[in-house]
Amino acid sequence: MYQPTEGRPRPRILITMGDPAGIGPEVVLKACAIRKLSERFNIRVVGRRCRLDQWSALLGMPFEVELIDPMEDGAEATAFSPGVPTSEGAREALACIKAAAEMCLSGAADAIVTAPVSKVAITKCGIDFPGHTEYLARLMRTSEYVMTFVVAGKRVALVTTHLSIADIPAAITRSLVLEKIKVLDRGLREWFGIENPRIAVTALNPHAGESGMFGSEEAVAITPAIADAVATGIQADGPFPADSIYCGLGGGDGPGSGFDAVLAMYHDQGTIAAKLWGFSEGVNVTLGLPIVRTSADHGTAFGLAGRGEADPGSIIAAVTLAGEIAETKARTGIGG
Q1: Helix (H, G, I), strand (E, B) or coil at 251
Q2: By residue range, what is the domain housing residue 197?
Q3: Which of 88, 111, 278, 303 is the most exposed, fewest CB within 10 Å of its CB?
Q4: Is the domain of 255 the same as that of 316?
Q5: Residue 165: HSE in the Cβ half-sphere, 13 Å Cα cutoff
Q6: Alpha-carbon gap, residue 92 to 72, rounded angstroms
Q7: Minimal CA–CA distance to 19: which of 72, 95, 100, 112?
Q8: Tens digit of pLDDT for each residue in 42-87?
Q9: Rounded distance, CA 88 to CA 79, Å?
Q10: 80 Cα distance to chain centroid
Q11: How many domains, the chain?
């Protein structure tokens, strides 16, 4: 657990507002109102002033955190309604992400926490946006990264992310699996302070392929990649059937007992487990980036926007984890 270090400045954390028509601004305002967070971390919000002022009035919540408005150029914003996404709102959300990332790269902040945006709304603006993870990796010219979910001390990372199920088998290659194992191992060491991490790698097919009866990906790609990783000194094991490896992870009995993280082959193979661990506590963290980035593990929930009922638990956990990672980096002096 993060503990402030005497004589060391509080981690400087930027929170992006997310899509202004979704629940992002609401959960951000709720998180910023929590005194223990503002006492532990130096928090600033990156968002459009007029949007956050509207949300503050709508929710009856004062907004007292320093605001950085990347679009404060004198141009008036059009009116918007909670729950109704617009192209203008999508562009504003993207501008906030870009501005926050650039501030971190310049050394003006230690971490960013991203509130949810709409992939569909951004894509309709003609912008290639598979998700925050891919966008930030491309922005920072980083090809080796791994999407990782953290919930109550349990961790699961993904080899592939936003792909059609039909495209996944061809994407699972020996080199890609090895790359993700290496990035995950480095992230666990440098960002989470785990000296000798143990990584469990899942199979792609049921029963780990049942000796080739249900597919060849385990024999062709996954098992050789694990062997390659072990040869470099990484403690990786598998492939394990994905329907059982999560049992015991983080404590207790089961195949996952003793492992620090699971590396899953595709999105739902990992995220279903993460959401079952604690939907309102999950954090998405991108390992491998030159900056610290965490995110709430939920979407824009346009249908819930404006009702004041959004649970800020995930964004609170994301801010906390960002601060912990920033503190670990400051203490050890390692980790990009």
Answers
A1: coil
A2: 146-284
A3: 303
A4: no
A5: 4
A6: 11
A7: 95
A8: 999 999 999 999 999 999 998 888 999 998 665 667 777 999 999 9
A9: 10
A10: 28
A11: 2
23 and 117: one domain?
A: yes
31 and 114 both lie in a single domain:
yes
Q: How many residues does the chain have?
A: 336
Q: Where are the alpha helices (DSSP H) in the chain?
A: 24-32, 35-40, 49-59, 87-106, 119-123, 132-139, 168-171, 174-190, 217, 223-231, 267-277, 313-332
- What CATH number is attached to the domain comprising 126? 3.40.718.10
Minimal CA–CA distance to 3: which of 303, 263, 254, 328?
328
Does one domain contain both 264 and 319?
no
Q: Which residue has the higher pLDDT, 115 or 71?
A: 115
For 78, which DSSP code? P
- The verdict on 268 and 302 lying in the same domain is no
Predicted confidence (pLDDT) per residue in 240-296, tens digit: 999 999 999 988 788 999 999 999 999 999 999 999 998 788 999 999 999 999 999
Q: Which two tokens stand for residue 280?
A: 């309102």
What tokens does 72 get? Answer: 């404060």
CA distance 44 to 335: 23
